[in-house]
Amino acid sequence: MAAPEEPVGAVAAAPPPRTSGLAIAALVLGILTVVACMGPFAGIPAIVCGHLARRDCRRDPSVGGDGLALGGLIVGYVGTALWLVMALLWVALLAVRVSAVGVG
To answer: The dihedral of CA 52, 55, 57, 59: what is its sign?
Structure first.
C-alpha cells in the first residue's frame, strides 16, 4: 500500500503565538485578588503585569495573551476596588462602634 500523498499547494499551519508570561501572571493574580480576598496585595501586581503584557502584545505580534492580560486588568481593578470599599466600610463601622460605646 502506498503512503498518502500531500495535496499540491498544501501549506503547513503556522505555530500558535507564544503566550506572554506576564499575561498569565496578571490573570492568576487578578483571580487571587477576588477569590482569596488578597485585595491590593495581589490586585496591584495584577494591574501592573496586565499593562506590561498588553504593551508587549502590541509591540510584538508574535506574542499572544492580550485577552488574558485584559482579563487580569479587569479582575485586578474590580477586586482592588471592592477590597477598598470593604475596608472603608469596616473603618466606618468601627468608628461608629467606638463613638457609640465611648472611649475614656
So the answer is: negative
